[in-house]
């Protein structure tokens, strides 16, 4: 079985696949030590760690470097968040995906939104579906198999008629050959259940306040759970708090 098929099979388990979201080798090694089944990059966490803002502000070459180091250091299946694809055409995006696949990456996340004048907006549904279809076609021609997880930002942007719009988009993405669907900021159990009912694609949800617990998500039919950049935020908040404590106490005793 290929690495792509093995990764795809992880989305068909009874229990949801918990993705450990990483930003460097150290974070990846922690998830490997804790016996996670797979890891995925957090675009925001990597960007912040390299001094960039989120939203494709860092060069793709920087992302490739981080991914290469992670792949050389751990054996877990790795999915990479490519945000908008780091390209304006299907060929450019497909070439970026091919570069990642050649490093051993088994999956990618790509978003159906874009940022214009510092405002995030949804892409046109038909144009984005066509883009997905073209990217998939190029990958197939090159005999590249990789798990394409589409991040649909309808709930994140709180679009009117959220559930209806999300369902329509997901059906289009499914027809375009997508492997999975990612809905950040979906939290209502009724919404989650309805999405699961409306698509054959495995549903990916993300850590967010008021997200149901893992047991409930499993019962609702969720197949993948991501952490986003929340652990990264927590880690550096803890670092700041401990450093403040050291300075306040004028001692390193709190570390031991």
From TrEMBL:
Transmembrane segments: none annotated. Keywords: Lyase. One of its GO terms (molecular function) is lyase activity. It comes from the Bacteria. InterPro entries: ICL/PEPM, Pyrv/PenolPyrv_kinase-like_dom, Pyrv_kinase-like_dom_sf. The keyword Ion transport does not apply. The keyword Lyase applies. This is Isocitrate lyase/phosphoenolpyruvate mutase family protein. It comes from Marivirga aurantiaca.
């Amino acid at each position: 079985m290929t690495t792509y098929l093995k990764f795809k099979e992880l989305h068909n388990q009874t229990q949801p696949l918990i993705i450990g979201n990483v930003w460097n080798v150290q974070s990846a090694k922690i998830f490997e030590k804790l016996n996670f089944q797979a890891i995925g990059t957090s675009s925001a966490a990597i960007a912040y760690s390299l001094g960039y803002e989120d939203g494709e502000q860092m060069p793709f070459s920087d992302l490739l470097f981080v991914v290469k180091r992670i792949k050389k250091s751990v054996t877990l299946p790795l999915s990479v968040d490519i945000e908008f694809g780091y390209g304006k055409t299907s060929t450019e995006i497909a070439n970026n995906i091919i570069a990642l696949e050649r490093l051993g990456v088994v999956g990618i996340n790509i978003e159906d939104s874009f940022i214009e004048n510092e405002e995030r907006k949804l892409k046109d549904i038909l144009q984005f579906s066509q883009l997905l279809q073209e990217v998939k076609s190029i990958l197939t021609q090159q005999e590249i198999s990789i798990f394409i997880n589409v991040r649909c930002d309808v709930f994140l942007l709180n679009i009117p008629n959220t559930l209806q719009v999300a369902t329509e988009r997901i059906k289009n993405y499914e027809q375009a050959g997508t492997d999975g669907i990612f809905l950040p900021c979906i939290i209502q159990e009724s919404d989650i259940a309805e999405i699961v009912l409306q698509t054959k694609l495995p549903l990916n949800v993300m850590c967010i306040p008021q997200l149901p617990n893992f047991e409930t998500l499993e019962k609702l039919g969720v197949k993948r759970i991501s952490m986003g950049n929340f652990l990264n935020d927590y880690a550096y908040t803890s670092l700041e708090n401990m450093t403040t404590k050291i300075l306040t106490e004028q001692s390193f005793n709190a570390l031991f």
